[in-house]
Amino acid sequence: MQVEVINTGTELLLGQVTNTHVGFFGERLLEIGLRISRQGTVPDGDDIKDMLAGAIERSRIILVTGGLGPTSDDLTREMTAEFLGLELVEDGGVMAKIASRFRASGNEMRPSNQRQAMVPEGAEVLDNNNGTAPGLYLSTGIGSSRVHIFLLPGPPRELYPIFEEQVLPRIKNVLESEGLGVPVARNYFFMGVGESELAGRVELVMDGIPGDFEIGYCLKAGGVIVRCICSERYVAGLDEAIRGIAPEDLVAEGASAIEDVVVRDLSAAGERVAIAESCTGGLIANRITNVPGASRVFDVGYITYANEAKRRLLGVSEAMINEMGVVSETVAKAMAEGCLESSGSDHAISVTGIAGPTGGSSKKPVGSVWIGLASSGVAARAFYYRFKTDRMHFKDRASTVAIDLLRRRLGGWL
Amino acid sequence: MQVEVINTGTELLLGQVTNTHVGFFGERLLEIGLRISRQGTVPDGDDIKDMLAGAIERSRIILVTGGLGPTSDDLTREMTAEFLGLELVEDGGVMAKIASRFRASGNEMRPSNQRQAMVPEGAEVLDNNNGTAPGLYLSTGIGSSRVHIFLLPGPPRELYPIFEEQVLPRIKNVLESEGLGVPVARNYFFMGVGESELAGRVELVMDGIPGDFEIGYCLKAGGVIVRCICSERYVAGLDEAIRGIAPEDLVAEGASAIEDVVVRDLSAAGERVAIAESCTGGLIANRITNVPGASRVFDVGYITYANEAKRRLLGVSEAMINEMGVVSETVAKAMAEGCLESSGSDHAISVTGIAGPTGGSSKKPVGSVWIGLASSGVAARAFYYRFKTDRMHFKDRASTVAIDLLRRRLGGWL
Fold first, then answer.
1. From A5, A380, B56, B87, which residue has the greatest number of CB atoms within 10 Å?
2. CATH code for residues A258-410
3. CA dist list (Å): A26 to A31, A53, A163, A232, B23
4. pTM across the whole model
5. Which of A7, A16, A314 to mutate to test the interface with B (most CBs of B within 10 A)?
């Protein structure tokens, strides 16, 4: 079943706003086995009709975003109704909801807001709990088949819940009513194993279990996502097979980020981590504290950019730095040990490296990094990596690997 | 002059990769007064021809991205040649370059790599210094006018330089050869003044200077970007007028981020900043250290998430925390003072607040934050904000305001 996406909005074409709708739809649709076959962006206005005309010929499901607001350049409702030859009629329920919103806020309702209560005749209203513009669902016969058109508000915090709660269930209904079945998609995020190595091992175990699977691989955030689509009844066997491949490398199932996993694992163990960062400059702590509830597992971080700060806060002596070099196994271990001791945490991560673009040498080129890991009662260890990339990606990769080392320690693999 | 963008690539439709090409093109084209009139994404394959057919009818400049690689689903070159009725011929220069790349890397060249040397007859080759697939430029007569088609590689680090260095100059040539003139776009980023207030003041000063200006406003990163497009000869007057509006609120001209500005200003003054973060969890330090050369102005950051860490590292007493509350003016000031003293820096920023989603109370709701600022020889001050948003946006907004406070201090406005 073909799905097509039409994004309306001049701001998307001027580069003021990045189009994240397509990625969101693409991921969520793939989970029920559907793919977007085409996507287009048009400015607010007449072009919407032109793009709808093409889409209706090619596709059975059409998702239109944007242009449902109260201003004069919000024309999606009008253009769609005009194109389909439908009258716009006032919807009493929508009108009442808009009026009550305005009453509650104390603002006066303007005629432009009343336009948002106009819906094409026969359209179903999709409630919007985060804004005034409701979504609209039109199912219309084109030739011998039905085309399903969804008009959806553009702001993500309005769009995403409407899509999850009201659009996806309707699309599933369409699939089921046509006897197509709704498959399940499973994502497995691996780190520390290369894509082709992983693919070989996945294929091997898949041969041994029953079911039809569609398998895809995608590089992401320093690891590989394995995506499997199959019918519901094969999921249990699939999970078991994939989990057995490389338990220590399987970071997460589903959409969890590695920092979510580590905060969850630390919470479960009732343990805490402290962080001593040099070249990552606070990114590791920032990622850990992005997770709600991080305060249960994280007390303190040291950003010891200068050598003097490494000495004062972590007890790394000037002599050691002079002798071994600040980017060295010895210093990374000493930073982790000093961090563990001064913080009183159960685990400590340290990072020392050269983010670039300058500061490298032939012996220690830009991108070199030592990551230290210390846990109470366990001797500190340090691991060397080299990320040949720009400063921002270097920080991202180094922080991801550092968090993954802690995950491996918590899982008993390190 | 109509510009249209065609993005090819199944990964864009599956949600694996976010389309950042459109935003990049949109911004850069706007600087020479052009707008993207339509954009579309198609999977690799036949659909490219269909979309080209529509684009050629509507537009004079067509930018196609992706599908120039060596694999069998990279079909943009073939599809475009087929659509335009052109033969593919081997380009000696491209072939030699690919062969020498493979010699240098020690890998063996496969037949699939030789495909990348095939170019539609009459196409101009746009050198790619960051990958094997060159861009291609075709100028073709359609009816009485010429259509300019650019085929460009998809990876941003290959695409962006080719676009800047080889595509934009050709587009400017087209504009000039048709006597259209190339306007200049200027961006001014303001913080601390609302959009409508700013717009009123901009209009007032613009009335007093000569020239035709197209002015737009865009909310971004806690501030407002004012974008003016005008002919080259009016730029000097424009700059002077805009700079006079609110010098203390004008963060940057052009594309600089606020952290770039602060690192530049600190470097120029030969001064350093230290940072004590609680609820922002390392984000401020991370942003500062994203700027190359940050080590000249930044030695140390403290992420004092727990109260005990605030006491031990910044000297904020438990009694003060108990009496005033950890999210308070007193504690923010004490954190900044403690940070200044222990680091020996010239300036210190501190942040204490409630990022949420939990931890708020009726007196101190989620989103409350006190930001402290101390400079050597100046009494510490603290500023209250409330950001009613989610955890991630809260951290972003709070860190931006904190960096802006330092900018104002360095500029002598605070």
1. A5
2. 3.90.950.20
3. 9, 22, 12, 20, 19
4. 0.86
5. A16
